[in-house]
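[Q] Does anyone have a clean structure-token version of this?
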Amino acid sequence: MALVVFVFAAVLMMAAGLQKTLVETGSADNVVVVRKGSTSEVMSGIERNQAAIVEMLSQVAMTADGRRLMAKESVVLIALQKRGAGKASSHSNVIVRGVQVQSLPLRPQVKIVSGRMFRMGSSEVIVGNSIAKGFSGVGLQGALSWGMRTWTVVGIFDAGNTGFSSEIWGDVDQVMQAFRRPVYSSLIFKLQDPAEFAQAKKVD
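[A] Here you go.
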């Protein structure tokens, strides 16, 4: 596992992109796993076999129904047209985050405020409220075209004072297929005991 690095969500002495990710994960006992040397999730890549090893760590917290409280995620960039901009050049990069069921429990600050959660396995997405306000075509039932398919906006979420409000979320497997991305960008999991962080990092 020398290719990945484990970092506490509360760590601040990181490159700007990764620091932003860590601060926004919502809990000091969350751990973010990225590829060693990465300065952002966009630049990171974690193989599926590596993710499977991390998922089986005894230090990963469990939910009440016996599932591991961990999410494998993929982060990519797309260009969207800003609201009210008439020129094709008036676009800005927006983060699309492929998430799993556990991504929301790991980030309790994220709340659906309009519409509903997307269905896993579908080409449905939810958008942060900052995206809905600032870009064209991303209101409820809006249709977005990227990754050679059409995505339907079924919900809008509020993530408080975090950058997640400026992201689009969809099913991780669908996002990876659309962008032909074979690896995850990052993993996030909750420690069953924050004191076990050092032991979790020893995985080989």
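[Q] Thanks! Anything notable?
[A] The helical segments are 16-23, 48-55, 129-134, 172-178, 197-200.
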